[in-house]
Amino acid sequence: MQKIYGFDYLRAICCIAVVCLHTNIPSLVLNFKNFYNIIFDNVFCLAVPIFFQISLILFFLNRQKEKNYFFQKRVFKIIKLYIFWGIFSSLFSCFTQKEMYLNYLSNLRDIKNIMNFIITDGYYNPFYYFFSLLFLTILAELFAFYIEKTQINNQLICYSLLIYSCIIVFLLPLSVIFMGEQFAMLPQAFNPLNFTPYVFSSFVISNYLSRNQQNDNSELNIKHVLILIILFISFAIFEWKYISHPFLWGGEMNPLPVYSRVSLVFGAWLITLISTKITSEPHFLIKLFSDLSLGIYCLHTFLGLLLIKFFPLTPNTDVLLLFFLMIVLATLLTKFLKNFQIFKDLI
């Protein structure tokens, strides 16, 4: 299997986009509220869905080469990531925000709070990624196993499940709007159901890559690209018009639910599909950020909290400086830790 250069570009761009989100870089254009909202909700929020989609595409492609890939390699690696970063974040919270963290633990008395703790991998929401990735990978393995055992057209099954999963994502925010706050947990960013459509869109892209040699000169199907563009724009317009309720989703500057949006499914699909046609090897910096993207994703939040705690930085006024320091420090620390064998699969 040839190298898919486009995935290096996407990993690098998406890990930078995540840091941009967490340092609130879009606030630099806060005077242009509509532009701010589009950049935040329709551009930067594509980063995590694209990460999921890349991981799932590579899972399907590797599974074609190694039938036991799920059990022999993939599932245990994700579990290790989940356990390691969950323990690390709990210890970090205990030392830096002890009172707040212990108060949080004291509320783990009912099944709802326990479920939240498990899904978010402890106290830090960014690590919901690992639980969701484990959930999606198990779902992808079950789907691929079923496809192998059935004689029904796999494209028909895939697109049927894709539509069904998109309907679920579509209904998540509507359940809160029409049925009340007892359903408030459903459209939260950490809900794995937000990301189920990416299993099936990834299967479609992996089939496309299997049929067409990666990085060749064949052209994308323009009709498919146009359909994805139309679906992305149409659902984005619907979301802004009908589910934009700022105080339901977290305040005036958060008018939409983070990931419970069908537009992100088609946006991530479109961008990932286009990236597969990139034929040029990435620049050194792009390759660096791509190779270190997992570590940057995991470490930047801790580094940001330490910077704010020990230096006179405020997340509202020093966003560019905070962004620069978080990127540089997370990159250097990840590069350093990768020199140790124990961290190679964890960072």
What does this structure look like?
The chain has 347 residues and is an all-alpha fold. It has helices spanning 5-22, 33-43, 47-65, 69-96, 98-106, 111-119, 128-149, 154-179, 197-211, 222-242, 246-249, 262-275, 284-291, 293-310, 319-337. The chain has one domain (5-277). The chain contains 15 helices and no strands. It is globular, with a radius of gyration of 20 Å.
Can you lay out the helices and strands and say which pair or pack?
Blueprint (H helix, E strand, L loop, with lengths): L4 H18 L10 H11 L3 H19 L3 H28 L1 H9 L4 H9 L8 H22 L4 H26 L17 H15 L10 H21 L3 H4 L12 H14 L8 H8 L1 H18 L8 H19 L10
Brief write-up:
The protein is an all-alpha fold and 347 residues long. The protein has 15 helices and no strands. The protein has one domain.
Structural class designation: mainly alpha
Q: Give the overall form.
A: globular
Biggest sheet features: none
Instruction: Estimate the helix proportion, in percent.
Output: 55-70%
Number of domains: 1
What is the ordering of alpha helices and beta strands?
A: HHHHHHHHHHHHHHH
Alpha-carbon distance between the two ends: 24 Å
Let me know the average pLDDT: 89
User: Could you tell me the radius of gyration in angstroms?
Assistant: 20 Å
Count of extended strands: 0
H/I helix tally: 15
Low-confidence stretches: none
**Strand portion, in percent?**
under 5%
